Amino acid sequence: MTVHPAPPFDVELSAALAALNEMLPPSITPDMIQPMREGGLGAPPIAELIGDRPIRHEERTISGPAGAPDLTVSIFSRADHVDGGPGIVHTHGGGMIIGDRFTGAEEYLNWVMELDAVVVSPEYRLAPENPDPAPVEDCYATLQWVAQNTRDLGIDPERLIVGGASAGGGLAAGVSLLARDRKGPALAGQLLIYPMIDDRNETVSSHQVDGIGVWDRGSNDTGWDALLGDRRKTDAVSIYAAPARATDLSGLPPAFIDVATAEVFRDEDVAYATRIWEHGGVAELHVWPGGFHGFDAMAPQAALSVEARAARLAWMRRILGA
Q1: Extended strands (E) in 176-237
Q2: In this predicted model, what pLDDT tens digit does every residue of 43-98 receive, in sequence order?
Q3: DSSP label of 192
Q4: Which of 17, 147, 235, 263 is close enough to 293 for a disulfide, judged by CB 3.0 to 4.6 Å?
């Protein structure tokens, strides 16, 4: 494979990345997992993120997958929520190895306010302590619980989507496949924000982004090795763990897929959208020029970040009729 240099970073984002890399190196190695969990990546407490906005936060314990521990989920809704609104099962990012149900809250709390959506975010089990299928099964169990409790939650069952970023995007794609194949809850859409969906790490972009940006080729190896162990890159890998391996992408809910040009996941995500179209499905694809992985979360004030988040919100308004 001929590997060319990575596309350049957006000028505004490049300045933000230089500051970020002083705290967050491009490559995450296995020995860094626990320190990163303990450090919390500098995320403010959820109460601080909510601030003075009229948002209710409730925690509940729900049943996990068969034979697995119970799950803690956080439920967010507007104080003036009108019953029968949209529902979003949010699957957080973190490479399958870090993060918690509040990762990504800065954006999903805006969905609560803008869409009058009820967001349910599960504390799914992390690898390597809990390898595949634990994370995706926890997320699917959450979707099932939400679908069974839409009346109590004030959600219209026909306006229910699943979504997340990075590993959370991969989990959302896996949950969508599980719902299709198990004839589970009907989904109105799947929001796949630069999703992590291919354990093989063999695309051009996966080679281009090595030692630069955020979540490079080495980080990707760390995450997938933790999730899959010795099964990685073999035929024993499930399509629900690595949705890029699915050969049949028919019968899925409409997808929103976005990704940046200067990140590992670019080629696998573009290919996933293309295969959805090839199977007669619906996908909206955005490829953000000059973005690094997670650019909108790490530099939310940048012009490209504002545009990316606005595009997701616009798609959800159309899909959910909100």
Answers
A1: 189-193
A2: 789 999 999 999 999 999 999 999 999 999 999 999 999 999 999 999 999 999 99
A3: E
A4: 263
| Cα dihedral sign, 295-121-179-147 | negative
Q: What are the two backbone dihedrals, phi and then psi, of residue 271, each rounded to the nearest 5 degrees?
A: -65, -35
**Do 257 and 286 contact (CB within 8 A), yes or no?**
yes
Residues 6+ apart with CB under 8 A from 84: 154, 155, 156
Average pLDDT over residues 275-279: 98
How many CA atoms, within 13 angstroms, populate the side-chain half-sphere of residue 289? 1
Q: Which of 232, 18, 253, 68 is nearest to 159 (CA)?
A: 253
Q: pLDDT of 115-148, one tens digit each?
A: 999 999 999 999 999 999 999 999 999 999 999 9
Structural tokens at position 308: 């990316």
| Residue 287 amino acid letter | V
Nearest Cα residue to 162 out of 132, 192, 183, 123: 192
- Rounded to whole angstroms, how far apart are CA atoms 276 and 251? 9
Backbone angles phi, psi at 130, to 5 degrees: -130, 85
Question: Among candidates 230, 246, 108, which has minimal Cα distance to 174?
Answer: 246
Please tell me the class of the 11-320 domain: alpha beta
Q: Can you give the length of the chain in residues? A: 322
Q: Give the other-Cβ count within 10 Å of 184's Cβ.
A: 15
Phi-psi region at 294: left, alpha or beta (left = phi > 0; alpha = psi -120 to 50): left
Residue ranges covered by each domain of the chain: 11-320
Helix residue spans in the chain (DSSP H)? 11-20, 33-39, 46-50, 105-115, 134-148, 150-153, 167-181, 204-208, 217-228, 266-278, 295-298, 303-320
- Pair 229, 131: CB distance under 8 Å: yes
> What is d(CA 140, CA 142) in angstroms, rounded to the nearest whole number?
5
This prediction's pTM:
0.97
Residue bearing tokens 């609560």: 112
CA distances from residue 175 to 144, 168, 230, 240, 281 in whole angstroms, order as listed: 10, 10, 23, 7, 17
At 88, phi and psi to the nearest 5?
A: -130, 120
